Each structure stands twice: as C-alpha cells, then as structure tokens.
Amino acid sequence: xxxxxxxxxxxxxxxxxxxxxxxxxxxxxxxxxxxxxxxxxxxxxxxxxxxxxxxxxxxxxxxxxxxxxxxxxxxxxxxxxxxxxxxxxxxxxxxxxxxxxxxxxxxxxxxxxxxxxxxxxxx
Length: 123
Known about the structure:
It is built from no helices and 11 strands. It is mainly β. The strands form 2 sheets. Strands 2, 4, 5, 6, 9, 10 and 11 form a 7-stranded mixed β-sheet that branches. A 4-stranded antiparallel β-sheet has the order 1-3-8-7, with no helix packed on it.
C-alpha cells in the first residue's frame, strides 16, 4: 500500500551534518506517524527518532540535542537533520511510517519500511 524512499545519506566527517529525507507514496492511506531507525554493523536495529502527524516527537538518548526530526504532512515526507555527527552514528538508516485504516469494525494500524540509506561518519 505504501512505498518509502529515503535520500540524503552519504559520507561525512565527524562533527559534520547531514539531512535525510523520506517520502511516502502509494494508494490511499493516512499517516499517523513517521520515524527513523538505524542499524550499525553487528548491531540490532534501533529507534533514532519518531514524530506523529500532530508533531509529537521522541528521540533516542544518544541523539538528543544533535538530531531534529520534522514532518511535512502535505507532502507525506519526514526529515532528519543530523548535526555534530559522530563515528558511532555510522549505520544504515531506515524510514518507517505507520498508517491508519478505518473500517466498520474499528481502526487498524500498519507499519511500512524503506530500503535504507547508508550514513558513514569517518575522517
């Protein structure tokens, strides 16, 4: 139902900045929240930041004060501004969206994932 395309990843030096974007498209849907997750080599996928359509945010402790998440509801796009990047931020970053489906019996939610974009922080 939903396709997610991430962009903005690449190679950056420690202390530098990158801005990730993720656009959602597909058949009719209603986005309730979007977020970014990352997976470093040899590590499990972890939450980085999430934001609801009402712009309520949540950040991992490791990125608080350095990363900022934003959402453009009209464009179905989420952004992640990453500043003061560290080598330990190196990972594949995955975009996630949670959509809402209304039906006669109630409401259901479903998650969709992008293919990921690689962020490498190295001097």
